[in-house]
Amino acid sequence: MRIYPAIDIRGGNCVRLLNGDYGKETVYGSSPADMAAKWEKLGADFIHVVDLDGAKTGGSENRRAVADICRRVGVPVQQGGGIRTLADVEAVAALGVSRIIIGTAAVKDPATVKAAVEKFPGRIAVGIDAKDGFAATDGWTEVSQKTAVEVALEMKSLGVDTVIYTDIATDGTLAGPNVAAMEEMARRTGMRVIASGGVGREADLEALSHTGVEGVIVGKALYSGALKLEEIVHKWGN
């Protein structure tokens, strides 16, 4: 599995949220680019970035921070959050982002995903955030009537091959990932699934390694020191 260290940006800072709650934020530094350079030095071969402000409002306040990350590191960067139009996709691609993650628009505006896939083949992923199995949108503030798997299969039909799958209930808790949900997504879709949410110890990585997921995003466990990136990359990384 590929290990993706997570950098969540809010107000230009590197932060973590608990269960996606914007009122439960911990700030881990004022320079996301410095954090990305740190993770690269410790062995990361891909960086996962989320613009939390963009995810909630659809705005682009943190694009300068994302551009700084892309300039600082020599490994590819994937970014999601607030990418809802083809113009957003184009703007993020121009920052140097290798893999562009479309979230809310995957549920609300599939035509945008189709256009993005056609213009940037191989560079478009969808971020599906699930609450009780249903896809959530707008920075997790709304829940749709479509299941996460239904959304993934619809995106697959449009040419998307990569899904970043987050279980909101486990995100930021260190309480363990929703292993069954990740296995179901990988098995039923046949897509490249990147698991996100709840990883807090090596046993969680061991469990995910048997689900068929391509990779796993690790966030709070790295920032809290519960896991050391250089160790888990050596043991679990590609």
Structure explained in plain terms:
The structure is a single chain. Helix 1 runs parallel beside helix 3 (63-72) and helix 7 (148-157) packs parallel to helix 8 (179-189). The chain has one domain: Aldolase class I (TIM Barrel), CATH 3.20.20. 38% of the residues lie in helices and 29% in strands. It is globular and about 40 Å long. It has 238 residues and is α/β, with parallel strands linked by helices. A hairpin with a 2-residue loop joins strand 7 (124-131) and strand 8 (134-137). It has an eight-stranded parallel beta barrel, surrounded by seven helices.
Question: What's the CATH H-level homologous superfamily?
Answer: Aldolase class I
CATH topology: TIM Barrel
Order of helices and strands: EEEHEHHEHEHHEEEHEHEHEHH
Which structural class fits the helix and strand makeup?
alpha/beta
Architecture in CATH? Alpha-Beta Barrel
Helix content: 25-40%
Query: What is the β-strand count?
Result: 12
The CATH C-level class name: Alpha Beta
- The domain count comes to 1
Q: In percent terms, what proportion of residues is strand?
A: 25-35%
Q: Largest sheet, described in full? A: 8 strands, parallel, barrel
What spatial form do the alpha-carbon principal axes imply?
globular
Uncertain segments are none
Q: What Rg do the Cα atoms give? A: 16 Å
Counted by DSSP, the helix tally is 11
Distance between the termini: 5 Å
Spatial arrangement of strands, main beta sheet: 1-4-5-6-7-10-11-12
Mean pLDDT: 90
